[in-house]
Amino acid sequence: MKRPPRRTPMLAAVLLAGAALLTGCGGADSGSASSAAPEDWKTLKGPTLSLSYPTAFTEQSDAERSEQNDAVATLKEGGRYVALISIQSGFTQVKDAEEAAIAIEASVQSTAELKDTTDVTVEGTDAAKQVDLSYRSTGENQTPQRGATVEGSVITGVDSRGKIFSVRIDAQQGKLSSADRKQIIETISVK
Known about the structure:
A hairpin with a 5-residue loop joins strand 9 (149-158) and strand 10 (164-172). Helix content is 15%, strand content 36%. The longest helix is centred in the middle third of the chain and has 12 residues, at 97-108. The chain has a 7-stranded antiparallel beta sheet. By secondary structure, the protein is an alpha+beta fold.
């Protein structure tokens, strides 16, 4: 697992590794991005979107996170990153959600197994796609133990300014419930 060398949607193993190179501390605003989130969840904000996430995660400061990400929240157990939520925007030029999903799929094919690509409703945009994938951790850079299964979801589309957005949720199998993953996705709001 290595950090991507340029601002691309290299999102499979890369984002957990990129977050692992950073320390997981910092604060986050209280509250939620939408009414779909539990009252005690925190808000993660990027330049074109926001979302809510569970309080067990810790938001990284600007100085801590990788330059490829606009915002990151991580969950750490036993000194290892076991879950990561990241926001990226404007990293490639596409005209719609379909092209955004194709760009995501192409970027992860060499590092992950694509599971499914589906339409998803995201507040503030006409169309968005969810790309689900999985991969085995290398155990490098404080990521889950070598061989652990990591499940990922990438929600992508185009914001009102014509810029691509991407929300990536990676979690070691069993570390983020499907209900919490779904609720995070439901709170995404695009400007």
